[in-house]
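Just scan my protein:

. . .
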Amino acid sequence: MLVLNNINKSFKNIEVLKNISFTVKENKIFAFLGPNGVGKTTLIKIISGLISADSGTVLLDDKKISMDKISTMFDGSRNLYWNISVRENFYYFTALKGRFKKEVDYLLEKNKEIFQIDNLLDKKYGELSLGQKQIVAVINTLLSSPELACFDEPSNGLDIYYEEKLIQIISNYIKNDSNKIIISSHDINFLYKVVDNFIVINKGEIIGEFSKNNLSLEEVTAKYLELLEGKK
């Protein structure tokens, strides 16, 4: 379980995050939903250990987060090396998390029907299309088998075909009961297809949390807009 308690962050005396507290349970996909520029990416960076909060705590299973238990993807095309193959990228980045090549090969073979990237493995990453790059970056994030995976705007620039592939890959990964996923996005249509719970953020604060349950997309959208209007 991931628990954040009273996270605060400022840059040059400007409050970016204010008293952020929430819990992410196992086998769940949570969304940080909100407009651009409201602190979602900063929060992902704090959870990932890339920057420190000014105050507050971030605990994974009652302990400070260990970097080998978390994996994060920001802008997909910037996450991997363009001049080496997809396979070599996978080997390199998973090795940083303590994984061996044979483990990577096993996971690629085990999930080949879901990933569907056999034809890309020996191509240089820089030669791929935008959609292919994004899918490869998502797979790279998951190959180290992190307990917590974080994605910042993973659907940016994807057409319908690659968005559906992205949803399939993420949904399959969460079937492992110990895994947790956080997706930060302003794209409510994409999030509706993949997440279980919404954490709505605006102006650096959590202004609401709710479960998707049996809500329709229209109901989720209305709930989100109601929360935003109430915060203005």
Notes: The longest strand covers residues 14-24. The chain has one domain: 2-231. The helical segments are 40-48, 86-95, 101-110, 112-115, 130-142, 160-173, 188-194, 217-231.
